[in-house]
Write a structure and sequence with these properties.
10-stranded mixed β-sheet, mainly beta, 4% helix, 4-stranded mixed β-sheet
Length: 326
């Protein structure tokens, strides 16, 4: 496995950046979709413990109209659509140990009711909702390149600080009765955050809400500025070659163009300082790379542009092979 461009990137201790949150609450009072759906309860959990953002949203949807409906619409602002890497939905039925998750189809919506570049997706329900009926849906969305280093350049001695932007209100084409949003950060060091009352910060969790009776397409932006010293591993290009022999053996060669997507290093890099104090002189740099391979993988080799990599830890069990490259 050839890995290119693994260069330690160091991060910053911030010169004090204060965000004075003058937040404009945008109420886009435009026509909602024709089906008279109401979100009785929305609970969002935004996981920022990695540079890949994972958002789990629980929606309790009720049909208050006279007819039936077989779809629920999701809304995403333009900046999130650009970074949306994965989206799935499931209906939750039952309680406790008897709770089951039923996968639902998600597809782009052709609706033209959304304002301001907002993109809609349609969730197809397993069974149509009649008047007065409700369903609980869990949505997972994964966003890349949404956590930004700020400042963008740091010295080797600085830690890495990053920014994340979103809305305290759940963007939806429906009326939302009650909603909350919880943001989980990798570190309790939060430099600043926007307040959209009620707002509560406890250790590494920032909670917005509860908010009640918000109109369709309500939006209230927030910014969180926090420390994150994890390396931002980004694969710019991956080429995989698979060779199958006449004897049934399979050889797989993977070539990665890998780079650090976090803050760029400012000034020179000292290998001596890095080896002496890696947690203080390059806190957010790559210290190792881990590959999880199939259980029967063997004869593994790896190299970079310089040549063969001899420092590694190869471990195997009945379920997987774990190969750490240092």
């Amino acid at each position: 496995m050839a890995i290119r461009g693994v260069i330690p990137s160091n991060l910053k201790r911030s010169t004090v950046f204060v965000f004075v949150g003058l937040l404009t609450i945008l109420q886009l009072c435009l026509a909602a979709p024709s089906s008279e759906l109401v979100l009785l309860k929305v609970d969002r959990r935004i996981d920022l413990t990695s540079h890949i953002v994972r958002v789990v949203t629980s929606l309790k949807v009720e049909n208050t109209g006279l007819g039936t409906t077989s779809e629920v619409l999701l809304a995403f602002p333009p900046d999130q659509i650009e970074n949306l890497a994965y989206l799935k939905a499931a209906a939750l039925e039952g309680k406790g140990k008897n709770k089951v998750s039923i996968p639902l189809k998600v597809s782009p919506s052709q609706s033209e009711d959304a304002p301001g570049g907002i993109v809609l997706f349609s969730i197809s329900l397993a069974r149509a909702l009649k008047k007065g009926e409700s369903v609980t849906i869990e949505v997972l969305s994964v966003l890349t390149h949404s956590v930004k280093p700020f400042p963008e350049e740091i010295s080797q001695a600085q830690t890495q600080l990053v920014l994340y932007r979103d809305s305290a209100y759940f963007l939806s084409p429906y009326l939302v009765k009650v909603q909350t949003a919880t943001i989980k950060t990798p570190s309790p060091r939060i430099e600043s955050y926007s307040k959209v009352d009620p707002t509560k910060l406890v250790d590494t969790e920032l909670k917005y809400g509860p908010y009640e009776n918000l109109a369709a397409f309500s939006f209230s932006p927030f910014i969180v500025h926090f420390e994150d010293n994890q390396p931002f591993a980004v694969v710019k290009e991956l080429v995989r070659e698979i060779e199958i022999s006449h004897w049934g053996n399979v050889q797989i060669t993977e070539n990665y163009h890998l780079f650090h997507g976090g803050a760029r290093i400012k000034g020179g890099f000292s290998r001596i300082e890095y080896q002496a104090r890696p947690n203080a002189r390059g806190a957010s740099s790559f210290k190792s790379l881990v590959a999880r391979l199939p259980p029967r993988a063997h004869s593994v080799y790896y190299r970079d542009e310089i040549g063969n990599i001899s420092t590694s830890h190869f471990r195997a069990d009945s379920r997987k092979v774990r190969n750490a490259i240092f």
